[in-house]
Amino acid sequence: MVVGVDLVEIPRIERALARYRERFLERVFTPAEVLYARGRAPELAARFAAKEAVAKALGVGMRMLAADGIGWREVEVLGDWRGRPEITLHGRAAERAAEMGLTEWAVSLSHTREYAIAFVVAQ
């Protein structure tokens, strides 16, 4: 079993949205995540934190910071039919999880006005 956690300041995401809007959204989030969040910074911040938490659970960083890292869009966090968040891995993230024998992922997301947090567990 592996775990990962990350905390994000929501104003940081708000600043990125204000300054880079489409470029930021396209670089970090999948089209389905953008549609799901509908531009709401707390929703985007929680998903941003989940992507970081998954990278930590996989024992790698994000590709922009580490050569063997994963890409932002290789981790997708969407709600199921009840709204419960679920993780889907693509590309290098999926390959790394397979190498580690990780087939089941659970994620919990939460936010306040200032912070968003994600906690992931995989086995």
CATH topology: Ribosomal Protein L22, Chain A
Tell the overall outline.
Answer: globular
Report mean pLDDT, rounded to a whole number: 94
Number of helices: 4
Along the chain, the helix and strand elements come as EHHHEEHEE
E-strand count: 5
Proportion in β-strands = 25-35%
Q: Helical amount among residues, as a percent range? A: 40-55%
Largest sheet: 3 strands, antiparallel
Q: How far is the first residue's CA from the last residue's CA?
A: 4 Å
Assign the CATH superfamily: 4'-phosphopantetheinyl transferase domain
Domains (count): 1
**How big is the Rg?**
13 Å
Strand order of the largest sheet: 1-5-4
List the topology elements:
Layout: E1 2-9, H1 10-28, H2 31-37, H3 41-57, E2 75-79, E3 85-89, H4 91-99, E4 105-111, E5 115-122
Antiparallel strand pairs: 1-5, 2-3, 4-5
Description of the molecule:
A three-stranded antiparallel β-sheet has the order 1-5-4. Strands 2-3 form a two-stranded antiparallel sheet. The model has no long low-confidence stretch (mean pLDDT 94). A hairpin with a 3-residue loop joins strand 4 (105-111) and strand 5 (115-122). It is of the alpha+beta class and 123 residues long. The protein is built from four helices and five strands. The longest helix has 19 residues, at 10-28. Helix 1 packs across helix 3.
